[in-house]
Amino acid sequence: MTLKPFTRDEIDTGRRLFAGDWRFVAAAGSPTSLPAMRGTEIALAGRSNVGKSSLLNALTGRKSLARTSRTPGRTQELIFFTGGEGLNVVDMPGYGYAAAAKTKVAAWSELIHAYLRGRANLARIYVLVDARHGLKDTDAPMLDALGQAAVSHQVVLTKCDAVKPAELARRVAEVEAALAKRPAAFPGVLATSAHEGAGIPELRAAIARLLAERRR
Prior knowledge:
Strands 1-3-4-2-5-6-7 form a 7-stranded mixed β-sheet, sandwiched between helices. About 3% of the residues have low confidence. Helices cover 35% and strands 19% of the residues. The protein is α/β, with parallel strands linked by helices. Helix 1 crosses helix 6. It is built from 6 helices and 7 strands; from the N terminus they run H-E-E-H-E-E-H-E-H-E-H-E-H.
């Protein structure tokens, strides 16, 4: 299912939404260290090195708001940021890094499950998927957890500048077909490139639309 086209007003609202003074709020490495709920929250999830930090920096127009790293699995906490209009963004720990110790993976899993179960202000999780590879087996546990927790989630393709248009169209169709089997998955896939800025205005507009729908 394709997304309803974004209006010029939604594009502009999304731009203003992320033009505020974005700042780091907290880092939670355990369920007991989660900060108090405030405003509306969205989160970015995805495999290690999928480009979560780069996408967050692109959304906010800041080069170093979120730390980027070439080392997979470096982010081991939920990182909370806040901006204007009561919106908060959470950078979730990357998953699927084979070299991570089993105890560390178990701790990450406990943290993420606690977050999904107890966050009443969580509006949606954007699951980032590398456009070059599409959905992988390592994405399944996260998608399963989101479905079990009945948390609305939507797939955002990253690094779309690295694939040709025809291949990108096929990738979008493949992901949408896979998500059609998951009731909690929001229909429609957004394609982005943090490097070139492609799809960033549309992702901002999608978040602005989500906030507007929650206010109704």
